[in-house]
Each structure stands twice: as C-alpha cells, then as structure tokens.
C-alpha cells in the first residue's frame, strides 16, 4: 500500500484511530491540534493514498535536549559537558489495521528525513524517543536507537546515523 504523509489537518478522521495505546489514541484525537497551535509539537499523519481522511498512523516532532552524562561514553566524549540539542519524536503510532505492514518503518524514516533536513539550519546531536514499553524498546532498537543510561525508555539515534553525508 502507498501512503501520503502530511501535517495534521482538520480533514482527517481520527475518531476511530486505535493503535493499542490509549494515551496515544487520546492524544491524536484530543490534544494534537492544540499542541500544533501552541508550537509544542509538529504532528504528521499518514493516510492511504486513495483515502485521505483515513488516519493510518502519526508521529510528532519537537525540539529537546539531553544531558551528556546519560550518553554512552563513546558518544559523550565527542560532545561538550552541558546539555546538547536533540530532536524528539514524542509520539508515534500506527492504527492496528495497518500494523505489521511497514508503516511504522515508513513513519520513522520520514521523521529521520525531516530532522536531517531541519538539521541543516538548526543543529541537533541526535533523535530522542521515549519508548513506552518493552515492545516499543525492541521496535526502536531494531532501527539502531540506543538506550540512555538512567532514563527508563529514553533512547537515542545519533545524528551520524541519519544525516545525509
Ligand atoms: C510500534 C509500532 C509503531 C510499529 O508499527 P508497524 O507498522 O507495525 O511496524 P512495521 O510493520 O513497520 O515494522 C517495522 C519493523 O519493526 C519490527 N517490529 C515491529 N514491532 C516490533 C516490536 N514490538 N519489537 C521488535 N520489532 C518490531 C518489524 O518486525 C519490522 O521488521 P522488518 O523491517 O525487519 O520487517 C506499532 O506497533 C504501534 O503503533 N504500536 C503501539 C504504539 C507504540 O508502541 N508506539 C511506539 C512509541 S511509544
């Protein structure tokens, strides 16, 4: 299946969205547009190419920072000893009807590409995600995210992995 990914808009039908995580369902239905208006997050939605109202998945992007003390030594020694800027994929979810068909990977790749483009004008040392459970941790490990020390569920993809050479 081919998907279109676009910024959240009022045209989408989020009422039936079910990704298996009630906080994520609730977020996209009730709070996402408010976060966009307040410049807290940018929210991107995926729909099947032939059904632009059907919400298949979404992710959010924001700016954040991370303390070097939580980074693996191999990375920390290349960075200053104060908090460094990162991009945050705050939320990512795929509707159950579309899970297991590659959409999660497409959304993650799209988020990395957007961060890579943005990083030409706003520096980031990596992408952070907060995995909500062991399943999510396995999903992100699969794509090269590494766990941060002392921060349960928080993982990092270093900029060197996703930046265009
Ligand atoms: C996690 C989630 C986004 C994955 O979406 P998806 O569309 O089913 O994922 P994909 O089909 O693109 O799978 C991509 C790859 O990750 C792997 N994968 C998927 N879920 C996984 C898991 N829980 N653990 C390990 N690997 C996983 C798949 O096997 C696949 O591997 P492959 O590329 O070698 O075939 C989706 O299950 C979801 O929305 N879950 C509920 C919300 C959630 O956990 N969000 C995560 C952030 S907190």
Question: How do you describe this structure in short?
Answer:
With 165 residues, the protein is α+β, with helices and mostly antiparallel strands.
Please tell me about this protein's structure.
It is a single chain. With 165 residues, the chain is α+β, with helices and mostly antiparallel strands. The protein has a single domain, classed as Aminopeptidase (3-Layer(aba) Sandwich). 30% of the residues lie in helices and 27% in strands. The chain has 5 helices and 7 strands. A 7-stranded mixed sheet has the order 1-2-3-4-5-7-6, with helices on both faces. A hairpin with a 6-residue loop joins β6 (146-147) and β7 (154-158). It starts with a strand and ends with a helix. Coenzyme A binds at residues 19-21, 24, 92-94, 99-105, 131-132, 135-136, 138-139, 142.
Please specify the SSE layout and strand pairing:
Blueprint: E1 3-7, H1 22-37, E2 42-48, E3 57-66, H2 73-76, E4 84-94, H3 103-118, E5 126-130, H4 134-142, E6 146-147, E7 154-158, H5 159-162
Parallel strand pairs: 4-5
Antiparallel strand pairs: 1-2, 2-3, 3-4, 5-7, 6-7
The structure holds coenzyme A.
């Amino acid at each position: 299946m081919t998907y279109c990914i676009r910024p959240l808009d009022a045209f989408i039908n989020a009422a039936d969205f079910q990704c298996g995580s009630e906080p994520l369902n609730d977020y996209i239905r009730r709070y996402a547009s408010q976060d966009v208006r307040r410049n807290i997050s940018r929210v991107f939605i995926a729909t099947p190419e032939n059904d632009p109202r059907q919400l298949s998945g979404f992710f959010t992007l924001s700016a954040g920072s991370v303390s070097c003390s939580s980074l693996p030594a191999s990375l920390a020694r290349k960075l200053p000893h104060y908090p460094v800027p990162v991009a945050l994929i705050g939320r990512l979810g795929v509707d159950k009807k579309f899970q297991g068909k590659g959409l999660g990977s497409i959304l993650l790749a799209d988020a990395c590409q957007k961060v890579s483009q943005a990083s030409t004008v706003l520096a980031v040392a990596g992408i952070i995600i907060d995995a909500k459970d062991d399943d999510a941790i396995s999903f992100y490990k699969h794509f090269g995210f590494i766990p941060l020390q002392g921060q349960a569920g928080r993982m990092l993809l270093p900029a060197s992995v996703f930046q265009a050479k």
